[in-house]
Structure prediction request, 341 residues.
Amino acid sequence: MKTLILAALKEMAGAPAEFQLLPEGKIEINGDAPAFLDEASAQGIIDAFKNRGNDMVIDYEHQTMIDVQAPAAGWVRQLVWKGKEGLWAVVDWTKRAKEYLENREYRYFSPVLWITPTDRKVILIENVALTNQPKINNLKPIMAKLRRDDKARKNQNEKEEAMFEKLKKLLGLANDVAEEKVEEAVTLLIAKNKELEGRAEVVACKEILEALGAKDGAGKDELLRIVASMKAPADAAAKMSLEVADLKKKISEMEQTDLIQLALKEGKTSPEELDNWGRDLALKSPEQFKKIVLSRPAGSVIPVESIQIAAKDKPGALDDVQREVNRQMGIDEETFKKYNK
Prediction:
């Protein structure tokens, strides 16, 4: 039992499955002006990665960027925003890259960034390279997480040892008894409990009764009542969580409608563009919609004058803005013309 636990923990050691790709806030770049990463720009990076539909390559020394053979060291499977902890990459390493990292032959990495020239926001990550000369200052080494794992694993081992010793005492076994005997005693106890279940009500041990706040000698019905009362708040919390999620969805849909109506009214988008990608972006990432669509000059897609003239010359007629509003509200064209003369 203990051997299996320790073996599983040992198997977890090695190159980390995720690491911090970029810190939140200011990013110091050696020999260049600093860049910046906030939640909005990080979400844009994550959306672009998802839309690409491919894993992002991690190579050696940026070999992908030059015309040479460029074997992969690993693949970024997912990008995750962790707030103050920054943007993290979930990765699969190749066997050779794992050996490099575990031997400390490679400690750092270098992402290829796209940065806006005006506000120096990071808007895209093209790929990542293993290197020992990163351009970003104060970068966290990839293997730093491994050192934290070593400490966590040591603490976990100590907890398992303590639990193992307590188990021997509860089973009435000697301190120097072999691990196999402990496992054998547990197996016999489980078998005995299963046998009792078929013949009589199993009485809970004293420690369990105390933990549940039940009286000594409490029966099955009493214990089930206590457990049910403990479960009720959890069920209520789960229901509330679903209601909150549904409310957030409705608010997002209302905000999407407002953004789309404003963009159409000011001629900053078209129904065709909304059908292709705009409507989906307005729902999932309204801040990105504002930056991409609403930041455009008025009339840049559809001249504002043509929208105003169409509305003035044809009372009750359907322009692009009204048609989109009707579609959002579920109003058909006949109903609109009938009541909007």
